[in-house]
Design a protein that fits this description.
alpha/beta; 7-stranded parallel beta sheet; 9 helices; about 50% helix; binds acetoacetyl-coenzyme A
């Protein structure tokens, strides 16, 4: 069934693929972006590929901005039944060198955003008796990563949020899940130094980076009616890099 889906940070590597796959499945797709200006080219590129998306500026670290964005989406597009909390950043450095600014930026963007964005949409989902909240975490929230105390903490925290909220809304037809991608071929991963990246890839049993489309296919499945019995899960998609 076609629904309205909102993807935060939908203009990044994984985000773009999620927007496209959700649209391919028939959903109306809304995305948010934080850096004004970027959306013009992105929307034009997507149009060229046959996709028409709605885009709203929203700083996911700003609670009030998220409320305002959600009200505008409701009025201008309609009720959101599928929410993909995808926006995220890295500020990689060893803990000893990490500044308070690096810590705060990652915690507020990757973890506080779950409160800020989910809050204005979840009541509508429970009222209507259907909803999908999909939180994009990371392999590094599951196993930890050298140079990512901030990111690993935020990503692990996301799944705590998932498990608690999943219990609260399960009876109302709303599922809440975490998806934890491993190393996917995106700008974020390409920003890791070549030799470190190569060492990481050599530790991935399938011996390659994942593709954004592979993650997006999983999200699209979770967004559908067929995934109604999956809730509170943390689904790994990492090429076998971390098995548990
Ligand atoms: N385990 C143990 N020791 C390690 C190590 C590791 N994984 N990596 C580096 N070291 C050692 C080095 O050998 C070096 O030792 P010496 O001082 O004895 O030479 C020391 O630690 C390096 O310390 P530095 O403070 O000099 O570190 P650096 O500034 O060179 O690099 C870093 C630090 C930038 C965090 C770098 O380690 C790095 O890029 N790590 C990868 C981080 C990563 O995987 N990020 C993922 C980004 S993508 C993403 O996050 C998406 C997703 O969800 C998967």
């Amino acid at each position: 069934m076609a629904r309205i889906a909102l993807v935060t940070g939908g203009m990044g590597g994984i985000g773009t693929a999620i927007c496209q796959k959700l649209a391919d499945a028939g959903h109306t797709v809304v995305t948010t972006y934080s850096r004004p200006g970027k959306e013009v080219q992105w929307l034009a590129d997507q149009k060229e590929k046959g996709y028409t998306f709605h885009a709203y500026e929203c700083d996911v670290t700003d609670f009030d901005a998220c409320q305002t964005m959600a009200a505008r989406v409701l009025a201008e597009v309609g009720p959101v039944d599928v929410l993909v909390n995808n926006a995220g950043i890295t500020r990689d450095t060893t803990f000893r060198k990490m500044s308070k600014i690096d810590w705060d930026a990652v915690i507020s963007t990757n973890l506080d955003s779950l409160f800020n964005i989910t809050k204005p949409f979840v009541d509508g989902m429970t009222d209507r008796g259907f909803g999908r909240v999909i939180n994009i975490s990371s392999i590094n929230g599951q196993k930890g990563q050298f140079g990512q105390t901030n990111y690993s903490a935020a990503k692990a925290g996301m799944h705590g949020f998932t498990k608690a909220l999943a219990q609260e809304v399960a009876r109302k037809g709303v599922t809440v899940n975490t998806v934890s991608p491993g190393y996917i071929a995106t700008e974020m991963v390409m920003a890791v130094k070549e030799e470190i990246r190569q060492a990481i890839i050599s530790g991935i049993p399938v011996n390659r980076l994942g593709m954004p489309e592979e993650v997006a296919d999983l999200i699209t499945f979770l967004a559908g009616n067929q995934a109604g019995f999956i809730t509170g899960s943390n689904i790994a998609i990492n090429g076998g890099q971390h098995m548990f």
